Give the backbone structure.
Amino acid sequence: MPISPGAGPVPGVLADSHGRRFPYLRLSLTEACNYRCSYCLPDGYRATGGAGFLSLEEIVRLVRAFAALGMTKVRLTGGEPSLRKDLVPIIAAISAVPGIARIALTTNGCLLPARVRGWRDAGLTALNVSLDSLDGTRFHAITGHDRHAEVAEGVDLALSLGFEAVKINTVLLRGLNDDELPAWVDYLRDRRTAVRFIELMRTGDNREYFLRHHLRAETLEQALIEQGWQLRPRPADGGPAREYGRPGHAGRIGIIAPYSRDFCAGCNRLRVTARGDLRLCLFGEWGIPLRPLLQADRDHDALVARIAGQLGAKADGHRLHQQQTGLLSHMAAVGG
Ligand code: SAM
């Protein structure tokens, strides 16, 4: 189906009433995941809902509309985005949208060794790989899959392919992986990557797990500072992670602390679910359906107007401190 080009970019239109700008879209490609991470989908993915996930044509129309509003970066996430059979055409089509300079993918990494070259060739510019432990047995216990070796091999392969960035996400889990800082420091000595410790977030489905395994990321951050890691200046479009480096280490360590004060002040992203709902916040109370306007090129202007018209409703911050998780049952449902 031919898709006509959209209007030219209007930089800066994607801003909210709290002075934040949103150059960055996190687009979920699927709710399905092949892992059973203990904090997310411990019983595995079960299909729900009627309509399928956004098609390639719908995705291109969506990205064109965001690009017309000045969006420059798209991150593909899920569920597990690499389960999409059309991932390579999706990457290629997004990279052809005028104004989109960066396309990143967040993946559990199990298909990296076989697929990452193809993603890079199609136009992927950055990669985030989830790796919750450097120990194979622990990795298996946390994710439900004995695939540590493939993921680790995949990260090393990705590091050789000239990506703008290859980063590792590790959810910090009390009693399960919170003693691995020395192993990560070793790992980072010669690898030009950043490991980002993400503080476990409460979701609708993980309340008891959260109480057992939540650990404030600042605990780890304090240990880093004591070991001579230094906070690096945050790039203007850097998002909420705080990144540390240490002389003699090629790699960096990032801290993503959603419960810290001012976390939301650095918010630079909007989200669209795999079924085409705009979410102004991961923990928002409502979604704005965009899918009806993704069916034909002639709706481009109406789509742009619907997106732009919603930003005034973006709250200044999440309500996680009040245990309010909004619509979010688990991260795979929205795209973490
Ligand atoms: N399947 C892909 C992956 O594993 O990276 C992409 C989707 S996954 C939902 C995105 C990221 O969210 C992963 O790094 C995952 O560990 C993280 N995540 C999931 N649930 C979380 C939670 N409750 N708190 C913090 N991070 C979470």
User: Anything to note?
Assistant: The radius of gyration is 19 Å.
